[in-house]
Amino acid sequence: MALLELSALTRDFGGLRAVSDLWLEVREGEILGLIGPNGAGKTTVFNLVTGFVRPSAGEARLDGRPLTGLKPHQVVRRGVARTFQIVKPFPHLTALENVSLAALVRTGSRGAAAAEAERRLAEVGLSARREAPASELTLSDQKRLEIARALATGPRLLLLDEPMGGLNPREVEQACGLVQRIRDSGVTVVLVEHVMRAIMRISQRVVVMRQGKKIADGPPQAVVADPAVMAAYFGKRAT
Amino acid sequence: MRRLLPAAAALLLFALPLLTSNQFLLHLGVSVLLWTTLGVAWNLLGGYAGQVSFGHAAFFGAGAYTTMILYLSRGVSPWWGMLAGGAVGAALALPIGLTCFRLRGPYFSLATLAVAEIVRLVALNWESLTAGPVGLLITALPRVTLLGRDLNWERKEPFFAIAAAIAVGAMLAARWVSRSRLGGSLLAIREDEDAAEAIGIDTTRAKVAALMASAFLAGVAGGFYGLYYRYVDPDAVFPISLSVEMVFIAVVGGLRTVAGPVVGAVFLATVAELFRDRFTVGHLIFYGLFMMIVIRWLPEGIWGRALRLLPSRREP
User: Fold this and answer.
1) pTM to 2 decimals?
2) Are B186 and B209 in contact (CB under 8 A)?
3) Which ipTM did the prediction report?
4) B146 or B25: which carries more pLDDT confidence?
5) CA-based nearest residue in chain B for residue A114
6) Rounded to whole angstroms, how far apart are CA atoms B291 and B289?
């Protein structure tokens, strides 16, 4: 059975249908790439799944139980964590405090939360910066910090919103390795990303959205060769 | 050293009435302690959780009226009356929190300002309960015992002791909250509310809890005010200026510090005494001026800056 199922998920913002009748299954243990031109509705899908935005119609289910109608903090407790496209660290707190607060929601004791936070910082390679205020980290480090913070909530499904946007090629390489290690540790990953090289390399499956609709769903190589996808990105070839 | 300092300060505080019997000085002391309590109360929500309220006079006034009404109509001892004042403040905070916290940032602040005005107008017009603009006056003094002795209503010493106990209790409560799990949630909310939700914090619940705790302390302070002055009316306990004074004390003293409000309250009392006689409402201008100076050049407040300059261990 699919871990996450979206059925007929729809969201209108005024006259704009940001997400339109979206059906999608995310299987346990995969890395699913979600791509599409700007404004295709990818971030809105994340907001709908995590409870930050309510759907106009349709619903999202985790393990067959509805997520729709839950508040964001309830969705997290069900095991779905996310990062934000525009990073939202706790700016005045250190890296360690950032992650500890997330761990505290599950563990209850400060000592156990700090230990869990140390492990997560090590996992994303930020241990050396543990005492630095989050606002003083580089963008690359802030993105990794958000991933560590999301992992500290103990998710089964991790939604990453452009974790590689704005990173240099070397940092993209590192981020690819990190996402694969996260999947190997048993966390299913949905990845919204524009860095195609990364998507092609690490996703098992790619879903393409355009104007709120799903226009392709399949293995990366097949999807990029799809004429509909080519048209979405480059326009139709003049004949 | 840092552990002994608060204990020494508390000891000095309780010994003060033994050192002086100057009634004016003790009256100033009572004012400072009352303001301290209000600053601590406001800080719980405005400092730790970053939710700026401009309407805390509503909880203070509700506490003051509760204590007065319970004594005048039911003969309830002011001791219990003060606690009931806190409870009514907290109860009032629940619906206010659930509605106003649907808004964020400046919109929340404006909503609290509006709600406080509504509460003031209700108190002004609900004459059967509050006697409206006439106010409530204690004429027959209740027999109150303090540490086994009858309280002497004509002396300031017992009131100083009560105010000191309330202020110290409020500071201990703030310290406890700031180190609790709720304190962690409030910290996350202050830093980024969306991110706080995204790591599993029920932000609405945490904010309402902080508001209710804050309103309880403000309500107890209001109850004490009624008892001390033996008179309340809507203009005395529900004015906007009181809400602003609470902001002033917390901001000038130091947001998110336990002892900052003491410094803020001393500062406020000094400014008030220096300027009140010379200009009728001129002291309000100086509040605003000092607030601007602090926000521009001393954003962590006087006590917040002092803590940074003292050699200290970093809090985890």
Assistant:
1) 0.90
2) no
3) 0.91
4) B25
5) B316
6) 5
